[in-house]
Write a structure and sequence with these properties.
This protein has 104 residues and is α+β, with helices and mostly antiparallel strands. The chain contains 4 helices and 3 strands. It has helices at residues 2-10, 37-67, 72-96, 99-103; strands at 12-13, 19-24, 29-35. α1 runs antiparallel to α2 and α2 runs antiparallel to α3 (72-96). The chain starts with a helix and ends with a helix.
């Protein structure tokens, strides 16, 4: 989450409401070069802040959940379950979207 936020902040500023992007067809790469300040703020508010909130809530409740586990085998199982919950959005994205969309 922090890497995405820093990458968005470090992008050069474009004119109001514009986004400049380059496409490298040979390598199937879509690269955003510039983004307007308003677009950066919208991405932070709509994407990054909710993701950070969910990660913090999952950290708090996950730690409490693991702290209340007595057996080592149950703790390993619960830790694996928390990892699946944390990454479920990425698993669904990979399962539902085509290869071409995932590469963008």
């Amino acid at each position: 989450i922090c890497e995405v936020g820093l990458a968005i902040i470090r992008l050069d500023n474009a004119k109001k409401g514009q986004v400049q992007a380059d496409v490298d067809v040979g390598e199937d790469v879509f690269m955003i070069k510039r983004k307007g300040v308003i677009n950066k703020v919208v991405v932070c508010v709509v994407v990054l802040i909710p993701r950070m909130f969910i990660a913090i809530i999952l950290l708090i409740y996950g730690a409490i959940y693991l702290a209340n586990t007595l057996a080592v085998t149950d703790m390993i199982l619960n830790a694996c379950a928390l990892e699946i919950v944390k990454d479920i959005d990425e698993y669904l994205f990979e399962a539902i979207m085509s290869h071409r969309v995932r590469e963008l």
